Amino acid sequence: VGTVFSFQTFFKSSGRGELLISLCYQSTTNTLTVVVLKARHLPKSDVSGLSDPYVKVNLYHVKKRISKKKTHVKKCTPNAVFNELFVFDIPCEGLDDISIEFLVLDSDRGSRNEVIGRLTLGSSAEGTGGEHWKEICEYPRRQIAKWHMLCDG
């Protein structure tokens, strides 16, 4: 019984899936290049089984959304390959007051798109989101990619 319980606990904590993101901060032009590369282990969403994922990318400056972009929808897959690049203009010097939110959604024609998982990157983000952000600040002009666990939407 103990084994089953720990397996369920593990499955629950990793049940939102993961997102592979590449970031590059260009300090000379004050731009942030964001590449949404892949998603993996996305949960089944509806009765039909597989989800039709896409990613919304929101750029925030001091908690106010200043830009938004989104990827194309990938049909019927728990492991999507997006490879979509977005360039954001940063309205201030440096990235201290900037954060990026990634929302992985299930495209569902006829009803509201359901949030599969969420990820925030920025100087105040915890875990891998904060580590990734720190790295791109320390190494401008270098494209750095990392996998991130998605949290509940």
From TrEMBL:
GO MF terms held by the record: calcium ion binding; calcium-dependent phospholipid binding; clathrin binding; phosphatidylserine binding; SNARE binding
GO terms, biological process: calcium ion-regulated exocytosis of neurotransmitter; vesicle fusion
Domain C2: start-end pairs: 15-148
Domain of life: Eukaryota
Pfam families per UniProt: C2 (PF00168)
GO CC entries: axon; exocytic vesicle; plasma membrane; presynapse
InterPro entries: C2_dom, C2_domain_sf, Synaptotagmin
Gene3D superfamilies: C2 domain
Alphabetical UniProt keywords: Repeat
CDD domains in UniProt: C2B_Synaptotagmin-4
Record-stated family: Belongs to the synaptotagmin family.
Official protein name in the record: Synaptotagmin 4
Provenance organism: Pavo cristatus (Indian peafowl)
